[in-house]
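Input record (one chain):
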Amino acid sequence: MYNELVKKEKKIAVIGLGYVGLPLALAFAKKFSVIGFDIHEGRVELMKQGIDPSKELESSDFENSDIEFTANPADLKRAHFFVVAVPTPVDNAKVPDLKPVLGASKTVGNALKRGDYVVYESTVYPGCTEDDCLPILEELSGLKMGKDFKLGYSPERINPGDKEHTITKILKIVSGSDTEALEEISKVYGGIITAGVYKAANIKVAEAAKIIENTQRDINISLMNELSMIFDLMDIDTNQVLEAAGTKWNFLKFVPGLVGGHCISVDPYYLVHKSRQLGYEPQVILSGRRINDGMPAFIAKRLVQKLIKRGKSPLNSKVLVMGVTFKENVSDIRNSKVADLVRELMQYSINVHMVDPYASPNEFAHEYSLTLMDKASNDYDAVIVAVNHKEYNDFDLDYFKSLMKDNPILMDLKAMYNPEKVRDNGLSFWRL
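The corresponding structure, as predicted from the sequence alone:
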């Protein structure tokens, strides 16, 4: 397979051209012939013009790429190496929503031929690729894995907004349904990944490795969030504690904060789902999830307490929230916990304004039924800096005071500002 792909006698197809699929497809297209497929025709038309709908890539990234963008499933029949990179979210009940990955499996199954390869990159629980996706591939193609086609799993490690750890510079885990599949899949990914590949023992090991990467981060951040709540009761600055503790060589440097996005706050629920199917109720994982999911309510309550302490009625208060994306310097609003924070504040009848230099107002309104302001006003009772966008780095005391009325409150959720420089002239300062 690899030799035929290198000679461009066969094509690679990437299904799903979002934050993961598009960078991968373009990386492949520097060496192989690629078909980039997405079900959203509007996104496909933008990519044909060299525009990344996710605003992560530059137009130059599309240059010198042997790639064809399409929303027509029939075009996939010309491909022989399929990579599935669709989202794997959870529903409102925190149960894995496999519709995208199962739908992609149907699309690939209808295009699958003898000798083809199918590799999944979407984050799933261990066993999903072989137990849930494989039967669809076999049923719709009429083929059998091993005898007629090969299967693999290679978890994505894309970090939105990270310009240093780009796709080719991150070690890639690969796995295959047999020894031959593993070797061929390793060669294909090794052809573009300069950091190299790691061959996992089997598909389930690769799936499990991916799921625990983000579960580990989630649990560690939840500990920091719990510590911040405890230290807040003690009137101790959490950031100063972490700086002091961080002087020990083996201290893990995690910080408190809102945990949103499409990975850290979602992936643990996939492992929880599979664990429950097997009769085990996770303790530590769910405890961490409860703490992190509860942070918006905790922050909203602390602000209300501060407003009341300053003689301000929440009912008559106006608050500015700066930053609504799930992390700094990206436009990604998926599973933004800032939106949860805003709703918590609204439960207290607080008038909330939101601004963000990266988020699309239309996308934010569609996703959360909340309105982004074009620019901030100058009559707020409190300002919450919720995301550490680079545009906020140089804001000083005078800037924040220009936004607020008498007895103002500044809440710094990302510990961006020095308390000694900001806490002045009657401004109440609080940070996680």
